[in-house]
Protein 1
Amino acid sequence: MFSIFGVPAPLLFGQLLLGIINGAFYAMLSLGLAIIFGMLNIINFAHGAFFMMGAFAAWMLLSYAGIGYWPALILSPIIVGIIGVILEKTLISRLYKLDHLYGLLLTFGLALVIEGVFRNAYGSSGLPYRIPPVLAGATNLGFMFLPNYRAWVVGAALFVCLATWAIIEKTSLGATLRAATENAPLVQAFGVNVPRLITLTFGGGIALAALAGVLAAPIYSVNPNMGSNFINTVFAVVVIGGMGSIMGSIVTGFALGIVEGLTKVFYPPGSATVVFVIMVIILLVRPRGLFGKAA
């Protein structure tokens, strides 16, 4: 068994893999946050709760309807996205012309309510969700065993993130979304239903969080606290990458996941704070974030 910098290779690569997996979830969650903030100027503190709802939706589909993992990858984001659309139409749409603080307080309250409902219904101990048989087992890479499901999660997250970036940055739909953010009255004058576009954008951002929840369900136990365990780090990712920056969220999410994983190897006590230390440094040196645009 060889070592790298005095660390056994299996331990180093194992923590690196864990960091990449966490980074995949950081990227997907921060991507949804960046879309909602960049297009709607709403700081959605309930994003972690929608991530949790996606995992619970997959668990309920399997437990109550016998619908397995693969259909749940499509159905769960749709279900949770519809819930997000309803909340946007009834509550969040009233706050667009107000200060960001009101949206933050509202979504923080929504997060507490959603988590409380699921905690009362299912308790705080995790509920298992099995890995689909086709992705069970691991592949021997010589220096470590790579679990097949974790490899799938990283690949799927990377594909979803890049596809979302391409849609927003390289298509006419994305151009319309960006234009509606800059000058909604002008875009509406060209016949675009801007309120509907905003609602669908919010629902899409929520659906991304729910999709991440389905991917996370077999790795982490499905429990009401799974979203709150991620959300603080995800907000740090968004700040470091640049508020509203799509590519910044993707790159920073994966990078910080890797940094966090390596910190657990070389300096375990710092693994819980390294992301926030980096955030403070970035805010001091470049307040708009690594990929953020100047005001």
Note: The chain has one domain: 8-122+145-285.
Protein 2
Amino acid sequence: MEKKEIVTTAAPAAIGPYSQGISTGSLVFSSGQLPADPKTGAIVGDITVQTTQSLTNLKAVIEEGGSDMQHVIKTTVFLSDMNNFAAMNAVYAEFFKEGIKPSRSAVEVARLPKDALVEIEAIAIAK
């Protein structure tokens, strides 16, 4: 099965030796999306702003890969502080309002790149 790199300027460029995402067969995989502005690379704001930006970046990668948020089947949320879970969850719910919600894991980690408060990755079914 062939794999195709996903590249979009609507999400931040990879900051290391990895791809923004990969599509293969009927699946689209995103790398973890930081809450970075795609144009400046800056991470700004509180957990609400950061979650919105991470999910906006995730949406851009998933769509470039040939899917959409309604076809996301699995997400993983990385939080630098589990005390931010409720605020993250409120924003997250706005991005997954319709249809069957994806399965999800949410974990606290010691630190995220660029000292972000959140990072989110996903797997989606290609449309």
Note: The radius of gyration is 14 Å.
Protein 3
Amino acid sequence: MKRRNRSVWQAVLSSPFFLIVAIVILILLARAVLNIHEKAVESGIRLSQTQAELAKIEEDQAALQSEVSSLSTPAGIRDEIKERYHAVDPGESVAVIVDTSPTSATLSSSTEQTEASSTPSWWSRFVHFFGL
């Protein structure tokens, strides 16, 4: 009897229907594994982005704490008022220096405006389109 049972199981396991079902289950399991792997990679990327954001926030917090500590002293308050409102203590004077020479940024922006305002001819657009 044992031989008969074994041969029945062998027949079932080697049948085309069982092989097709086993392949379908294997494909479904492989898809599940790939989805989990993709989610793990995405989670790792998000973790590194979040850690970078946390480091930036901690730097900002340290900068704000140092600013608050400097503003907690009278000298820090006086310096902030001088910087923000351009105030001076009695007996001090303010010198304002005005640069009248044109800067390179002004020159480059004026040439960009000149180039942008002039439209190219149809021939130059044609040549540019075909890369000649």
Note: The chain is about 80% helix and 0% strand.
